[in-house]
Amino acid sequence: MAILQVNDIHVYYGSIHAVKGVSFEVNKGEIVTLIGANGAGKSTVLNTVSGLLHPASGSVVFDGKDLKGVAPHKVVEHGMAQVPEGRRVFLQMSVEENLEMGAYTRPRDEIQGSLEDVYRRFPRLEERRRQIAGTLSGGEQQMLAIGRALMSKPTLVMLDAPCMRLAPILVEQIFDIIKELHAGGTTILLVEQNAQAALAIANRAYVLETGKITLSGTGEELMGNDKVRQAYLGG
Fold this sequence. Notes:
Layout: E1 2-13, E2 16-27, E3 31-35, H1 42-49, E4 57-62, E5 65-66, H2 72-78, E6 80-83, H3 95-101, H4 108-121, H5 123-127, H6 138-150, E7 156-160, H7 168-183, E8 187-191, H8 195-201, E9 204-209, E10 212-218, H9 219-223, H10 226-232
Parallel strand pairs: 3-8, 3-9, 6-7, 7-8
Antiparallel strand pairs: 1-2, 1-4, 4-5, 9-10
Helix pairs in contact: 3-6
């Protein structure tokens, strides 16, 4: 059953037609990945789904609700959370204050339990709970960005390039976290430059080129596709 349906969305930046009739769906309990070159429109698609951008036409339906005109903070209340490209943690706030910001849609009496859940998943964050976020390493900031998203208790998490500029050992950790979230029942929509790693864990995948979806299939099918191998997997 589709928890997210994106139907023929067109998105413009001024006169630039950035997303051209993109349609796809994410079923409950899946990991779905979008792969493509820089500038293909992947982040624009995620930002449109989360309500940060508005399509000129087309629709986004989440859990049976059309999100047209729904403010981004209301989208979070519906059960969708986005981990943005570049992490975008609140650099002058402590780790714990950042996490609490992620829980702004939740009743106050539930926040402590959510903090404990995040700290159990990310012990490093608990060790640094009073530390200012801007002093964390890139990997720690990425863990914090993911933890902040989890504080809203989402049913769908969208991750935008979570491994950007991270060392290989940290990339492995981030993918382990994604697999763990999925195993716990969270539906995942992943945008990732590391196409090989993304396809390896994806139930299904879509290839985005210059604002259009040009290929789709299971992660395994796209991993074996000659065109995908040559363009994104190093031949």
